[in-house]
Amino acid sequence: MIVMTDQLLGQWNYYLVIILMMIGFYGVIARGNMVKKIVGLNIFQTSVFMLYISMGKVAEGSAPILTGDPTTVYSNPLPHVLILTAIVVGVSTTAVGYALIIRIQESFGTIEDDDIIAQLDDEEETA
Amino acid sequence: MSAENLIYTLLSLPLLASALVLLFRNQPNLRDGQAVLLGIISAGAAFQLYLLPTGASLTLLELAPGLTLSFTPEPLGKLFALVAGTLWPLATLYTIGYMRGAKEKNHTRFLFFYAVAIHATMGIALSGNLLTLFVFYEMLTFSTYPLVTHKGDEAALKAGRVYLGILVASSIVFLLFGVIGVWAMAGTLDFVSGGILAGKIDPFYVPALLALFAFGIGKAALMPLHRWLPAAMVAPTPVSALLHAVAVVKAGVFTVLKVGVYIFGIDFLKETGGSEWLVWVASFSILAASIVAMTKTNLKARLAYSTVSQLGYIVMGMALATPFAASGAALHIAAHGAGKITLFFCAGAIYVAHKRTDIQDMNGLGRTMPITYTAFALAALSIIGVPPLAGAWSKFMLMGGALDNGYLLVLGVLMVSSLLNLVYLGEIVIRGFFANPTRKLKGVQEAPLTMLLPLSMTALLSLALFFAIDLFIIDFGG
Amino acid sequence: MMQHLPILQVLLPLLASPFAALLRGRDVAWGLTFVTTGLAFLISIALFFQQRAIGETMIYELGNWAAPLGIVYVIDAASALVLPVISGIGFIATLAARQLVAAEIDARDHGLFYAAWLLTIAGMMGQVTTGDAFNIFVFLEISSLSAYALVAMGAGRDRRALPAAFNYLILGTVGATFYVIGLGLLYMLTGTLNLADLAERLPHVEETRAAFTAMAFIALGLFLKMALFPLHFWLVPAYAHAPSAVTALMASTATKVSVYVLIRLIFGVFGVEFPGLADAVGLLVLTLGIAGAFVGTLAAIVETDLKKLFAQSSIAQLGYMAIGIGAMSATGLAAAFLHLFNHALMKGALFLAIGMIAAQAGRATMGTIQGAGKQIPITMTAILFGGLALIGVPLTAGFISKLYLIRALLEQNFWLLAGLTFISSALALAYVWKIIEAAWLQPRPNGAPVLRETASQYIPAWIMVVATLGFGIYATPLVEAAFAAAHVFIPSVAGAN
Question: I need a labelling partner for A5 at 20 to 30 A (CA). Which of B186, C189, C342, C496 fits?
Fold first, then answer.
């Protein structure tokens, strides 16, 4: 019973990650609105950030700042550094995505997937 | 000249000819003259190579580790090179007469690809391994495509699609599969006397592997892969001559024979019985094509189906798996080459002189075209297998081979087929000489000399071959 | 200087990029790009020969920090083979870009265009060189983000480039994120991100479910990036509506790099012995590969837009590379490397030639090229040779890759698959011949615009054609290099070729 509880509660961070991941992924796939797709993508990426950050935590560990005391337990700083990079990448992706959406809005007058496809189909037929 | 130099000569002369064709594109006489001249030289070189003892080998380059482009003339290859080398100048001369007589366009393009096709044929004939053979086999397909579609109209394009579709698809899907299969199993692709597969492959798989080759070599026109041959009939007649006698189909049956003898090995085929099924498929092809030929009234279409049937003989000669039959098959490449090229030359001469393509329309033409019709009759008799013409020997040897291995039914097939040949080829000769003309014809009206000369020479070749037969019998060992 | 070559080839285009963005005037930015890519190409060729000469893996430690703590750049037989492909295609495409970009991109944007162009090349070179798994992700995103921008720049003439770029962005990011998830799991299991170190530590935890899940995430992410059927839907619109120069660059390199990264991780980190790899990934890749070969080829046969047609054909060709990977043998990997190399050459030639037509006529469709054989014979001949190489006609590079691909399948006794591969490659004849017939055997319709060609237009395509034929006629050194590359991941067995 204790093992079960430990598995369920001790790994709560992973459950959170997976729930977030699925919410984000659902947003990417199921939404026709391009802004919502980007939002979904961001949630999806954030879940991965959580995965990394939570793995860096060492039980009883303090912030990884040298204290000079050899008995101090530090948390692992490397995942944080990695995620710092990943956040930069994520922000850039979002920026490029929104730039594209603005251009799409200018040129199609809509940011709904279905409307754009319909417009392009009409174009093909008249061409 | 040494054998190596002769190989270089035979491979490069056609390329030189095609380059000169482009160079002299604005001087028709120079352009055409040099092609014939180079053809005559190559015929001489092919003959000299034929008389030299075997054993020479030449590696041009290494495509990939262990896979070379190399040339090793062995008796069979030298015979094929001789056939192609001799018929090339005659065919070129005839082409010039035909193209001018029939007022076809784009002579330069036509002569260019014609010479490239001969180059590919020489490469096939002299190839020292399966890879080299495959490379030139594909080159031959692509270089003859512009010839088949020469007229450029919708019918020609459609025929071109069938031609290319069947030949390329069969070669890529089956032939290359077979080639790489042999490579993976035997570790080599060299043509070796006695074959390279004995002991390397489970006898159970021999029929399947042989099938990859028999149907992969679409150029051998084994039914049901023969459709491209009649389709290609839309092309000008010199192309038909090239396809049927000099290059394409001959390259096909030559490849079948070469694979049978030097990759599988006759003894290996006989031991495993792996080629037995092919005897019956070839028999079917021989008879069915003959019957279809009888129903065709377009002269070229009838000749095309006649070719399909005759190719069956050569495939059967390999499948019978005896040295005697294989020799007969090799001989038939030469005999049928000389005979069929004459028949097509005559068909073209009739078209140029009288614009007729339908057999029922050719009554009494023999009296106005005595030379053409005499040549036609000689060639027809050779194909039927009547002595003293070349075709008699090859049929005789095939029958002997069939008896050796106890295929009595095959003997019957060969005899019935000869009778059918007699009916569908004889009809043309008889209509020409004895039937009353449907339209008025006056005096003698032959095709130009540039066409008459080649067709008489090839007809005489059929006759001469009969007497010089000792020279052309290849001993594949017993 | 010489020992810094591994980093220089990545650094040069990376550093040149911001300068290109600042430069005004079309020829200045182009000139900078031309010189930079040319230098990168020379460096990668020098590295190739250096590596072949010493026959060992060359390791470059960034800032002298040794692995596994520091990041290393690794030049082994595999990366040495792939680098010249990317920088070489980058260089030739830059050569062609001068005309193509002038025709298709607004003059004010040239600096930005070349900035993104250099970034995407730098990103690809980085992915191939680096020996650090997270570094691969960073470079992957550098090259992808700039590629999204490059595709979107096609919007000046064809607004469909915008949604195409957007979809590419969404799917590309999802793929990259999957990769990072897999990587996170690996890091949790082993505590390292260095590829060589990972390969050493993984066997201790290979029976865990987390290791298998990590492999699944990484493979899936890379399948998306390499456009393996059925995850290929982003590719065709992106290639079709991007500026012609971008199509030529990306079709020859972008997906190839992902194929390379897949090989590097699946074979270099997990290894053929990894439990479940042969069954799960091997069989899956084989199945998807052959399915992709058929779907791509059939779609190409019915397509009339030439860029889309050859983009579909790329799906099929990627299928062949996947089959080579799925064979799970040294010969199979060598075939995949060979095809990666050869296909880059052929597709480069084709898209450069088609790009020249599209830049003139606005679009390149079957109608545009009808009867064009007489007007632009040299360009159309380049397309003819590129097409023949796609079919795998002997004496072209395509033949060599097919030879080894089939051999790899036969060695593993995959006879049925070999047969299917042959059938799909024979079907390629249909779409290639459709083009040849239209160009050479049909008359130019009345009123169709007159197409022109000048030496500067067809020379880039012809450089690739000559390479395609050259590596088809004399492939021995290439085949040896490909086997050397394969043996980095699957050690050679005595007696095998």
Answer: C189
In angstroms, what separates the C-alpha of A113 from chain C's closest C-alpha? Answer: 8
Residue C330, domain extent: 276-497
Condensed to tens digits (0 to 9), the pLDDT of residues C126-160 reads 999 998 999 999 999 999 999 999 999 988 888 88
Nearest to A48 among C160, C166, C180 (CB): C180
Q: A2-61+74-126 maps to which CATH number?
A: 1.10.287.3510
Least Cα separation, residue A52 to chain C (angstroms): 6
- The chain C residues in contact with chain A (CB within 8 A) are 134, 137-138, 141, 145, 148-149, 152, 155, 159-160, 162-163, 165-166, 169-170, 173-174, 177, 180-181, 184, 187-188, 193
Kindly report the nearest CA distance between residue C207 and chain A, in angstroms. 20
Residues of B in Cβ contact (< 8 Å) with C472: 63
3-state SS track over chain C: CHHHHHHHHHHHHHHHHHHHHHCCCHHHHHHHHHHHHHHHHHHHHHHHHHHHHHCCCEEEEHHHCCCCCCCEEEECHHHHHHHHHHHHHHHHHHHHHHHHHHHHCCHHHHHHHHHHHHHHHHHHHHHHHECEHHHHHHHHHHHHHHHHHHHHHHHHCCCCHHHHHHHHHHHHHHHHHHHHHHHHHHHHHHCCCEHHHHHHHHHHHCCCHHHHHHHHHHHHHHHHHCCCCCCCCCHHHHHHHCCHHHHHHHHHHHHHHHHHHHHHHHHHHHCCCCCCHHHHHHHHHHHHHHHHHHHHHHHHHHCCEHHHHHHHHHHHHHHHHHHHHHCCCHHHHHHHHHHHHHHHHHHHHHHHHHHHHHHHHCCCECCCCCCCCCCCHHHHHHHHHHHHHHHCCCCCHHHHHHHHHHHHHHHCCCHHHHHHHHHHHHHHHHHHHHHHHHHHHCCCCCCCCCCCCCHHHHHHHHHHHHHHHHHHHCCHHHHHHHHHHHHHHCCCCCCCC
C316-357 per-position pLDDT tens digit: 999 999 999 998 888 999 999 999 999 999 999 999 999 988
pLDDT for C494 equals 44
Taking 90 as the threshold, does the pLDDT of residue C42 lie above it? yes
Asked, for residue B412, whether it belongs to a domain, the answer is yes
Range of the domain at B471: 275-478
Q: Is C191 on the interface with B (CB under 8 A)?
A: no
Q: Looking at the 3D structure of chain C, how many domains does it have? A: 1
Count of CB pairs separated by less than 8 Å, A with C: 71
Cβ-defined contact of A55 to C173 (cutoff 8 Å): no
| Residue B355 confidence (pLDDT) | 82
For chain B, how many structural domains are there in total?
Answer: 1
A39 touches C: beta carbon within 8 Å: no
Instruction: Answer whether A89 touches C (CB < 8 Å).
Output: yes
- Inspect the interface and report whether the beta carbons of C441 and B157 lie closer than 8 Å: yes
